[in-house]
Amino acid sequence: MKKSVAALLAASTLFSFAPLTAYADHQEEQKKVEYIALGDSIAAGMTPYGDINKSYPDFIQSYFKRSHVKLLDYDNLGVPGYTSEQLKEDVLNNPDVMKEIKEATHITINIGANDLFRKLMTDPAHASDGIAAASANLENILQAIDKLNPNVHVYVMGYYNPFSYYDQDSQAFLDPLNNALNSAIKEAAVSNGDSYVPTGGAIDPHFQKYMPNPEDNHLNIKGYKVIAKEFWRVIKKDVK
After folding, report:
1. Is residue 141 part of a domain?
2. Span 40-66, pLDDT tens digits
3. What is the CATH classification number for the domain harbouring 38?
4. Whether the model pTM is above 0.70
5. What is the domain extent for residue 80?
6. What is the pLDDT of residues 160-181, one digit of tens each?
7. Residue 13 domain-assigned?
8. For the chain, what is the domain count?
9. Among candidates 152, 240, 121, 141, which has minimal Cα distance to 191?
10. Any alpha helices (H) in the chain, and if so which ranges?
11. How far apart are CA 24 and CA 32, in angstroms?
């Protein structure tokens, strides 16, 4: 009888601790994520009315938190008004940014629109020069990221159409420039082995809903949620 009780206790002990052991193993195997966002005012979360609110990286962070991964760190390094030259300078020479890149597992980037916009405001006849500068700088940015962290997953955004409120004659000039910018961004990303994330297809047909101020080309929170969703369609493949 004593032997049977001992055997029973041994069995019950085994079953009691087995689930806890399995849970511990699951925790140890859980993928760890450190996510940083690089970019301009779109990454920073600039709204159509000039203030900063929730950005698409904030919503991507929420996606990470709801998935099975363990989010160890999240830093949004987006800066309103940033050009590709400024971001390149950060990636190459800013020790704080370089440290974050070295530690990251996932990086999102949107950059290049301000290169085009500044050229349009100062020398519209040579606006394509802004696209060429953005393309060259983005190539350098992506290559520098790979040198700092060869294993990081990088996702580069294609811009929605910021000129949707302009008249048809203006759009005949401006739309091809935006398309050319996105083509250059995509080429730089793909040639470097990174992921390109287009957003125009999700935003442009509903631009009045997501870009409600005709005097400003930034998105509202609903628009940034859409951008985050487009990123997550691609990112989630790398967090399984």
Report:
1. yes
2. 999 999 999 999 999 999 999 999 999
3. 3.40.50.1110
4. yes
5. 31-238
6. 999 999 999 999 999 999 999 9
7. no
8. 1
9. 141
10. 2-29, 41-44, 56-66, 84-93, 95-103, 113-122, 128-148, 168-191, 200-203, 207-210, 221-235
11. 15
